[in-house]
Amino acid sequence: MAKKTAKKATKKTAPAKKATAKKAAPAKKATAKKAAPAKKAAPAKKATAKVAAPKKVKTARKPNAAFMKALKPSAALAEVIGNVSVPRTEAVRKIWVYIKKNNLQNPKNKRNILADDKLSKVFGKKEVTMFELAGILGKHLS
Questions:
Q1: What is the pLDDT of residue 60?
Q2: In the predicted model, what is the mean pLDDT of residues 8-30?
Q3: Which of 70, 78, 108, 136 has the lowest CB atom count within 10 Å?
Q4: Is 62 helix (H, G, I), strand (E, B) or coil?
Q5: Contact present, 133 and 81 (Cβ < 8 Å)
Q6: Is residue 95, in this structure, part of any structural domain at all?
Q7: Tens digit of pLDDT for each residue in 72-96?
Q8: SS3 sequence of 84-128
Q9: Domain containing 89: what range?
């Protein structure tokens, strides 16, 4: 029986806390409501001015010139992507074409690239993650 009365006592105290919190909140709202009508009148005049303003036209996004600059690949990289100067974004694309054509992704973890003879000269190791790829290629482009 002592346990039941203890539970009832805790239940009674919990609603009392909620009631005090609810009583405090309406007092704050009442002060906010009094100040609100004065503020509402002023923005109504500004809203008409905003409607008259012309809308901005979005321009087409311009590519970053640094990414589009043609760079000459090193001899090791040229074996894989060709000896033509290409932007670094195009070099990454060509590497991925080579990787997928030769099935060089790790079958258990597709984020890893298993290097063959040509790619091991470029990467410097047998396995590279796709996140390291752009950084490694940057060293081979000039």
A1: 84
A2: 54
A3: 108
A4: coil
A5: no
A6: yes
A7: 999 999 999 999 999 999 999 999 9
A8: CCECHHHHHHHHHHHHHHCCCECCCCCCEEECCHHHHHHHCCCEE
A9: 70-139
